[in-house]
Amino acid sequence: MQIIDLDQTDLRQANAQLQNQNTATKLTAWQILNPKGAHAIAVGLDAPIDVTVEGSTGYYCAGMNKQARLRINGSVGPGVAENMMSGTVIIEGDASQYAGATGHGGLLVIKGNASSRCGISMKGIDIVVHGNIGHMSAFMGQSGTMVVCGDAGEALGDSLYEAKLFVRGAVKSLGADCIEKEMRPKDLAEVQALLERAESTAKPSEFKRYGSARKLYNFDVDHAGDY
Amino acid sequence: MNKPPETAAAPRTEPIQSATFTPAVNAEIRRAAATGIYDIRGGGTKRAVPHFDDLLFLGASVSRYPLEGYRETCDTSVTLGTRYAQNPIKLHIPITIAGMSFGALSGPAKEALGRGATAAGTSTTTGDGGMTAEERGHSDKLVYQYLPSRYGMNPDDLRKADAIEMVVGQGAKPGGGGMLLGQKISDRVADMRNLPKGIDQRSACRHPDWTGPDDLEIKLTELREITQWKIPIYVKIGATRPYFDTTLAVKAGADVVVIDGMQGGTAATQDVFIEHVGLPTLACIRPAVKALQDLGMHRKVQLVVSGGIRNGADVAKAMALGADAVSIGTAALIALGDNDPKWEAEYQALGTTAGAYDDWHEGNDPAGITTQDPELMARLDPIEAGRRLKNYLKVLTLEAQTIARACGKNNLRNLEPEDLCALTIEAAAMAGVPLAGTSWIPGAEAPF
Fold first, then answer.
1. Which of A21, A208, B2, B295 allows an S-S link to A25, with CB 3.0 to 4.6 Å?
2. Can you tell me the distance from the alpha carbon of B210 to that of B212, in angstroms, rounded to the nearest whole number?
3. Running DSSP on this structure, what letter comes out for residue A206?
4. Does residue B3 register a pLDDT over 80?
5. Does the ipTM surpass 0.85?
6. Chain B residue whose CA is closest to A79
7. Searching chain A, which residue's CA lies closest to the CA of residue B179?
8. B222 to chain A nearest CA, in Å?
9. Do B226 and A63 touch (CB under 8 A)?
10. Residue B242, SS3?
11. What mean pLDDT, rounded, does chain A reach?
12. Residue A56: which of A96, A2, A16, A99 has the closest Cα?
């Protein structure tokens, strides 16, 4: 186990150490101590390594992650795993705004609640939230899948493209062009697989599916009021 | 019987067209009434606003002496990003190519921009659509735009960039997002943007994961951490409150501030936005420079000015007002062949005329630049177009040097406001230089 103590090592050095690992690295287990809410912890990683952060982080933890598997034993600030490309990021606590923003791939798991704009502009990332999510989540979501075991706030999936949304609890309101859709067998299977990977025991049959009505895909003056 | 003599017509008022309801205004009202939608177009403001043409240089005479045109050097090089980056960008000329997306422009057009810029010793910039291989391959110095949409954004391309440009706004539409209509979303464009083919692509006006100057500072730090503090980070601002926005960009950690005035072009937005939001380029340079000076950061954080730069005089004037470099977009497209009268018959068929064509978003560009149509794209030879751009950049540089030498300056950056006067009171006030023939600088008593 490689240990980086942020009380002893400055952030730039810590990130460089992690970023300098490549696919062939033998140093696959890393632990980060004393994050103390610092921003940009473990960003830009690109190696199949396991990184555990012992505590809570500030903004953009695991930003642009590729390949790496991160576990945050705490809560995270805004923009966790923003623009993630691949790998896994698991948050044991809560996440602030814009969790997984613009993520292109990989799996983001939030065991607590996520704040507003979770999965904003998602582009292929999968997100599983064990708790609730805040307003405007999955805004302009392009692709990928979001599974919410709790409730969703206002304007879920506003201006949605092809991202798929599954919510078990109540949805306060749907955003423009987002509608409830039928739960098909393949959706149940997809939710089941994601829940398992996300260490959740929720039952897929309890979820509802939401997606784009595709009415705003090409501008039509008669739909201008829907925007 | 003789016809009665024709009676002279009674005196009448001549028909007078309204200066308010002009034929163009009325036509737009009729168009709006017929379609129910605002006009979308490309480019920057088309109406006359105070501009560099309203300034004149005061060449050397008795009180100062000029430099010899062809024998005495006049340095044009500039280094951008000296504040934090390990590898600042060194350019031979202070004229860069502004961000224009693959999607808005064809692949060959992006290649031509890269070729021309590289041959002239300057940088080019990606746009809202990610980095293409041909663009990276043909651009010696490539600035990677970091935009609200994050289309095509990935850490690998980020690390391939020579600089990052955090786009907060652009001069044609400060506060606005973008729109790429479905007809330009080809398979390749769709794939790069993770969107279904043929749908309208809406680019957000705000970044998805930061708002405000405090967040911006943290965001820039993240990007620096990801790129290990190697490459410069620019912050591009649409000109509205240049003093405050420059101050905040510097506070947030920008290496370079790019200010884009309302003459700066866009691929597509509402005409009402282009014409009625933002500041003329001329009005934003002095406040931005003042902000840098007040922070003790002028020349430490470089200032790049864009929006309506057309010739070497514009370059020299922007630099005399305090810019470290300028950036061109529309002029570069014209150099490539955009709006060339040789396509006039086709412009006419599209209901427009060469020079006025601005429906870049529709993808029917006869010049083959703002299109994804394979047949139209093939009209642009990227090698030939790149050569035209290189030539044009050379001319801009030579012209700017000519003026600088005449003002006795052996470096373009040594040009100063004192070398200028203004032809109009408005330009004098905006540029902070005296009205020609006077020592009067309107507004000098209440500067930023």
1. A21
2. 7
3. G
4. no
5. yes
6. B209
7. A219
8. 5
9. yes
10. helix
11. 96
12. A96
Domain around A87: 2-226
The structure tokens listed for B159 are 């690390």
B199-252 pLDDT, tens digit each = 887 788 999 999 999 999 999 999 999 999 999 999 999 999 999 999 999 999
**Which helix (DSSP H) or strand (DSSP E) does residue B144 occupy?**
strand B141-146
Q: Which residues of B touch A44 (CB under 8 A)?
A: 155, 225-227
Cβ count near B354 (within 10 Å): 18
Q: Is the pLDDT of residue A83 over 80?
A: yes
Strand A69-72 vs strand A88-91: parallel, antiparallel, or unpaired?
parallel
Q: Which CATH superfamily is domain B40-431 in?
A: Aldolase class I (3.20.20.70)
Question: Nearest residue on chain B to A102, judged by CA atoms?
Answer: B150
Q: Facing residues of A211 across strands?
A: A179
Which of B180, B200, B175, B327 is closest to B265 using CA atoms?
Answer: B327
Residue A102 tokens read as: 């613009």
Q: Which of B182, B195, B221 has its CB closest to that of A218?
A: B182
Going by DSSP bridges, is the β-strand pair B256-260/B233-238 parallel, antiparallel, or unpaired?
parallel
- Note whether B122 and B92 are within 8 A (CB): yes
What CATH number has the domain bearing residue A151?
A: 2.160.20.60
Q: Residue B180 in contact with residue B104, Cβ under 8 Å?
A: yes
Q: How far apart are CA B317 and CA B312, in angstroms?
A: 8
Q: What is the chain A residue with the closest CA to B204?
A: A140
Query: What SS3 class is residue B247?
Result: helix
Q: How far apart are CA A197 and CA A211, in angstroms?
A: 22
pTM: 0.95
Nearest to B150 among A66, A102, A139 (CB): A102
Helix, strand, coil: what percent of chain A each, to 5? 15, 25, 60
Q: Give CA–CA dist A61/B268, Å, rounded.
A: 35
Cβ-proximal residues to A151 (8 Å cutoff; 6+ apart), any chain: A132, A133, A167, A169, A170, A171, A172
pLDDT at B86: 98
The amino acid occupying position B208 is P
The residue of A60, A67, A97, A108 whose CB has the most chain B CBs within 10 angstroms, and thus the best one to mutate to test that interface, is A60
Smallest Cα–Cα separation from B258: which of B312, B207, B209, B307?
B307
> Given a cut of 90, is residue B117 above it in pLDDT?
yes
Report the domain count for chain A: 1
